[in-house]
Amino acid sequence: MKLSDFKVLTFDCYGTLIDWESGMVAALAPLTDRLQRPVTRNEILEAHARHESSQQRQTPYKRYRELLAVVYRRLAEEWNVAASWDECLRYGQSIQDWPAFPDSQETLQYLKGH
To answer: For the packed helices 20-27 and 41-58, what is the interaxial angle rounded to 10 degrees?
Structure first.
C-alpha cells in the first residue's frame, strides 16, 4: 500500500499530533501544585478523564474549551482546592499551548507532498 493509493486521509489531532496528556498535566499545575499530597501523572489523567466524560455526557454540544473549564472546577472540588472561575477559564484556553509531538511537523510536511 502506498500513500498515493489514497485520495483522503483523516486522523484525530489530539493524541496523534498533539501531546494532550502532557498539555493537560502542565496546564493543571496551578491546581495540582496546591494539593496537600502529591499526585501522579496517571492520577491526574484518570481524574480528568472521569470528569471530562461525565461532562461530555451531560453537555455533548458544549465547546471543548468551555467543557475544560468545568472539568477544572470539578477537579478543584474533588481535590478540595479553591479555584476561581477565571482560573478555570484559563485552563480551558490552555489547549492552544498544548505541545505537538516532536515528529508532527515533519510528518505533516511529508504528507503535504502527497
So the answer is: 100
DSSP state of 33: T
Question: Given this model, what pLDDT does residue 99 score?
Answer: 93
Class of domain 40-101: mainly alpha
Grid cell, residue 83, equals 479555584
How far is residue 15 CA from its own chain's centroid? Answer: 9
Query: What mean pLDDT do residues 26-54 have?
Result: 97
49-90 pLDDT per residue, tens? 999 999 999 999 999 999 999 999 999 999 999 999 999 999
| Closest-CA residue to 71 (of 52, 54, 84) | 52
Residue ranges per structural domain of the chain: 40-101
Side chain identity, residue 93: Q
Q: List the one residue out of 92, 72, 67, 99 whose CA is nearest residue 83.
A: 72
Q: Is the pLDDT of residue 3 over 80?
A: no
Tell me if residue 33 is catalytic.
no
Residue with cell 499551548: 97
Q: Which of 12, 33, 86, 97 is catalytic?
A: 12
